[in-house]
Design goal:
CATH superfamily: Ribonuclease Z/Hydroxyacylglutathione hydrolase-like
Shape: globular
Radius of gyration: 20 Å
Distance between the termini: 6 Å
Structural class: alpha/beta
Bound molecules: zinc ion
Strand order of the largest sheet: 6-5-4-3-2-1-14
Largest sheet: 7 strands, mixed
Order of helices and strands: EEEHEHHEHEEEEHHEEHEHEE
Number of domains: 1
CATH class: Alpha Beta
CATH topology: Metallo-beta-lactamase, Chain A
Number of helices: 8
Strand content: 25-35%
């Protein structure tokens, strides 16, 4: 799965998720790092309105209008409904960017809202879920979800040949059921996520601003151990990405990685070092 991630607590966080051309959060530096790739972005999903998650919007919106690329391609920005900071930005952009060549749409989102990405047999959508971060600023996480089909439990012991026969007889609907698989879950800034909200996801992006609980003054962010606990409880299938680490821990990354290795976790853990651009293939 292709993605480009940059995250340093307090400064800037953003993730370009290539499979669905989504930018999750938009901290400063997005457009100067992505350059012409900014034209690939279809949707921006903002977790909340703190500066380190929205300060790249001014660059992104202007570069999409002025650089070499499809300057008429529309851009949708989704944000938690009721965000004071984002609402003020929308007013600002409305006044200062009257001559945009493309449609810029701001879409408020509430927990549980769905945004359709792909229709058809393997329909995909984004579903917003609640997170707990700041008292004054609403915050959300987002799941990229895909609709799939599987055999109903009572048919799971059938032999391959029998399944093929039943499908040929037109009984596919009868023997299978639809289910929703989360492919990628982005928690934004939050205290430990509720595992239920990201259950069974393939890749979980969980913030961990702190290595040690003692470093946390206010209960607004998570620690590395808490992020791992959430991933275990949620049954993460492939990878846990730990981001939003404080730059005070820059030199500790190798040690933390070793400690995590010793835990023999059932998924791969990627620590996103604070202040480094990480390209994931
Ligand atoms: Zn932040
Ligand atoms: Zn924040």
């Amino acid at each position: 799965m292709k993605a480009i991630v940059y995250s340093k607590a307090l400064y800037s966080t953003w993730i370009y998720y290539a499979p669905d051309r989504i930018l999750f959060d938009c901290g400063e530096g997005v457009s100067s790092f992505l350059e012409n790739k900014v034209f690939a972005i279809k949707h921006v999903f903002l977790s909340h309105g703190h500066a380190d998650h929205i300060s790249g919007l001014m660059g992104l919106i202007n570069i999409r209008n002025n650089a070499m690329g499809d300057t008429e391609k529309e851009l949708r920005v989704y944000y938690p409904e009721g965000s004071y900071f984002v609402s003020e930005l929308i007013r600002y952009f409305g006044r200062t960017n009257r001559d945009l060549q493309y449609d810029l749409e701001w879409v408020p989102v509430q927990p549980g809202d769905r945004v359709h990405l792909l229709e058809g047999r393997h329909a995909r959508f984004i579903e917003a879920f609640p997170t707990v971060h700041s008292r004054s600023e609403p915050s959300l996480g987002y799941n990229v979800a895909e609709v799939r089909r599987r055999l109903k439990p009572e048919f799971r012991d059938l032999k391959q040949g029998d399944i093929v026969r039943l499908v040929r007889e037109g009984k596919k609907e009868e023997i299978t059921e639809e289910y929703v698989q989360f492919l990628f879950s982005f928690g934004g800034d939050s205290v430990p996520l509720h595992p239920h909200h990201v259950r069974g996801t393939e890749v979980l992006c969980h913030e961990a601003t702190f290595l040690a609980d003692e470093d946390r003054k206010e209960y607004k962010h998570a620690t590395v151990l808490e992020a791992i606990e959430v991933a275990l409880k949620a049954g993460v299938q492939k990878e846990l990405w730990i981001l939003h680490l404080s730059s005070r821990y820059r030199r500790d990354m190798a040690l933390v990685e070793k400690d995590i290795e010793k835990m023999k976790l059932p998924f791969r853990v990627r620590l996103i070092p604070p202040g480094e651009l990480v390209e994931i293939e």
